[in-house]
Structures are given as structure tokens and as C-alpha cells.
Amino acid sequence: MSSDHPHRKLHVMFFPFMAYGHMIPTLDLAKLFSSRGAKSTILTTPLNSKILQKPIDTFKNLNPSLEIEIQIFDFPCVELGLPEGCENVDFFISKNNDDERHYMIFKFFMTTMFFKDQLEKLLETTRPDCLIADMFFPWATEAAEKFHVPRLVFHGTGYFSLCSAYCIRVNKPQTRVASSCEAFVIPDLPGDIVITQEEIIDGDEESEMGKFMIAVRESEVKSSGVIVNSFYDLEPDYADFYKSVVAKRAWHIGPLSVYNRGFEEKAERGKKANIDEVECLKWLGSRKPDSVIYISFGSMACFKNEQLLEIATGLEASGKNFIWVVRKNDGDKGEKEEWLPEGFEERVKEKGMIIRGWAPQVLILDHQATGGFVTHCGWNSILEGVAAGIPMVTWPVEAEQFYNEKLVTQVLRTGVSVGARKNVKVMGDVVDKAVREVLVGEEAEERRRRAKKLAKMAKAAVEEGGSSFNDLNSFIQEFSS
Ligand code: UDP
């Protein structure tokens, strides 16, 4: 909290959706508020509290006077019709069958309604100054309203994708094209952004998921505003458009990942890595600057063997250094890893490494040897890549990731697209070409120059006087009074 504006201690409650891509930035957000003098309480379930406790303990050890705590809500999975221990979307990643996985994830979304009573009781007894609840908890606005607690929405994505989705929803341009691969400009959206129908994922409004998303939007309209993990200079036109056209109120406070400055804080975001972090950094330290490509598809995307085989083929053909993170279905685990070409690891052992499971992503991206990032365009990954000043190979898999790709390739111009389409395999030669294109050559240097400039802006945004610093200040002042 700014010393010029002494206010009483603000109490903020945070309620993240139980998925790594939502919990990681929310934890950063809670730490940020606490480091600016607020008391932060994170609401979550018993198993998810275990994920959050270690980074919170580290934060408290570093900052003993700051206040941050977890409040645990009951979540009786079996009673709710979910498998035992299923408290995080991560639980479903190992489901082999796509349909089964989607069905279970939807069911998971619906069962979170169970929290409403517990949330109401807690709000009634504690009366925090505000509740920053995930977009996927549409019932939270009404729950908070009952006790006159302002509810803020946290989407976890940036301005650009929120604006794109809005313009497409309002104008429905995809209904006027002759074919699903015909490119068109998104109406009303600044920047003449080109997209195709097959990249638009705002599904059928009549479907159960479509109805749920309508409820999400309605609850946002009734909320007190939106907290956005972004910074003004990254997407100024879209920040302005969002604030003036789409949302009632919005505050940007990111990029949240950059507040983690020490080794431990960077290493402890999410799961325990399936590699020794020090060894990983040592390996990177033995490589030339900007020579390593890092490949990761976030916490949710899980490719089939035939797609992984193409990635392996492309990486080997590129001849570049790499760190490749692979999340696999349990059903595919066996003695023999069918997703790797025969003898692959032996042949590439001087060049690269595969991390099976979870990687210390921010540590890797921030290392000077890392020169490119093949990403599924999840918003946290994009921001982490931006903050590290790294050009990207964009490979969206689902949801708003296709919009995020357009920001990187058409607005920031720091990325090369593999031309991904839902359920279409990307071939090895495309991977090979994109990896080489992003790492070497004149255009690669231009992209890198732009990426490094953005990284500087990202850091400046959170420093005193920066756009995110100021937005957070005004939020704190408004909700403290
Ligand atoms: N992440 C990580 N190691 C991994 C995979 C993911 O640390 O092996 C982190 C990553 O740094 C990011 C988050 O998990 O903070 C993933 O969020 P994102 O929005 O990129 O994608 P999602 O997983 O939600 O699709």
C-alpha cells in the first residue's frame, strides 16, 4: 500500500478455480496484495491447499510480517458424484478418452456450485472488503451481494482475448463465411485481426457448456469489475477497448509471474518439478545464449502418441538444443514409450532433454540460454514468455488460446505459428521449420528484439509508477475506503 495513502488494512478473499492455470496466478495475486499491505485469504479444498501451502510458507519466511492464509472448504467428491480425490482438473488429464474427459470436466465445473453455502457462511462471518473469485464461479456474485461484499472476476486471460471473444459474440462474423478455413477480420476489434471460423471456440449457446458460459457473463455484468493479469503496454488498444466497451470496470495488475524473483519462488509454482531444478539450470548453463527451444503445452493439453512422434521428429530434424515437457495419459504409459522414435533419446542426448511431467517453467524461460518457446498459448505461459523476452512458436490447442496466438503473431509480432487446428496433427517438418525460424535468421533477430523490449516494459509495469502498479494502487484505495 502506498505510504502516501494510509488506509486501514484491506482484507481480500481469493477463490481460484481448481486448475493449475488458475491457481498459480491467483496465488501470485494473493501474494501481491499481501505484499502491498492487505490481508489475503485464499479459499480452496483440502487437497489443493497442499499445493498452495509450500509456496505460501516460502513467501511468509521471506516476508514474516505479511498476512496471507488459506481457508479450506469441504469438497466431498464421492458424494458429489466425482471420483475420490478429484479436487483439481488435473485429475482428469490421465483420462484417455477425450469425450470422457470433457464430460467429467464439465461435471466438475457444475459441482463447484457446492461451495456456495460455505462461501456465504464465510462472507457473513468475516465480511472481507472484496472477493476476487474465478470466472468459473458465476454464483459467487450473488453470494457476495447478499452480504454487500463486492465481487470481482478473475478470468486468468488478457484483454486481447476478452475483446476478441466479445466482438465475435456480438457480430457473429463466422456465420457469414463460405468455409471454415476462410479468413476474415474480427469486426469492431482494433487492429484488423484475421481469424478463421475453425479457430473460434465460443461453442453452441444451446449446449450445457454454452448455457454455463452465459451465466458466467451475466455474473460478470453484475459484479464490481474485472481483475486482469496483463499490463497496459502489452495490449494498449485492447485495454482501452475492454475498459470502454466490454467491461464495466477493469484493473490490470500483471504480469503476475514477475513478482516471483527468487529461485525458490520461481521453482515452486504449481507442482513439484519432475527434474532437479539445479541440474536443469546447470544444463542450460552449458548452452549458448538464445540457443535452446523450450516446448511445453501447459498443465492441461495432452497429445496422442502420433502427435508426440511428429514433435520428436521435428525437434531432431531441427538440430537445435531443446527442453521438451511431455504430459502423458496413464493409459499410454508402458514399458515402451510408443511416442518416441526408436533410439531418439540416445541420438539427441547431447542436444536436448525430455521432462516427463512437470517442468520448472519460469526458471527455464528466464535462463539466458532459452531462445524460443513452443507454447500452447495459455495466457500464463504467454505472459511468462513475454516477461522473459522470448520469441514464441504458437501452437494453440483449445479455448481462448487461438485468440492469444493472434496477439502474439499479429499484434506483438514476436511469434511464428505452426497453423494449429483443433484435432489436426501438426507434422514434423512444420515443427522443424518453425523451431529454426524462431531461433535463427534476420527475422528471428527482429522478433527477439521486439520480445526483449516487451520484457523491459513488463518489468517496468510492476515497478513503482508503472501501469500495473498504479492500477493496483487505485484498486486498493477504492476498496479500502
Ligand atoms: N507450468 C509449469 N510447468 C509445467 C507446465 C505448466 O510450471 O510443466 C505452469 C506454467 O508456468 C503456467 C501454468 O502452469 O504458469 C499453465 O498455465 P497456462 O495458462 O499457460 O496454461 P493452462 O495449463 O491453463 O492451459
Automatic annotation (TrEMBL):
Keywords: Glycosyltransferase, Transferase. It is an enzyme of class 2 (transferase). SUPFAM superfamilies: UDP-Glycosyltransferase/glycogen phosphorylase. Transmembrane segments: none annotated. It comes from the Eukaryota. Its EC number is 2.4.1.-. GO terms for molecular function: UDP-glucosyltransferase activity. InterPro entries: UDP_glucos_trans (IPR002213), UDP_glycos_trans_CS (IPR035595). Coiled coil: none annotated. GO terms for biological process: saponin metabolic process. Belongs to the UDP-glycosyltransferase family. This is Glycosyltransferase.
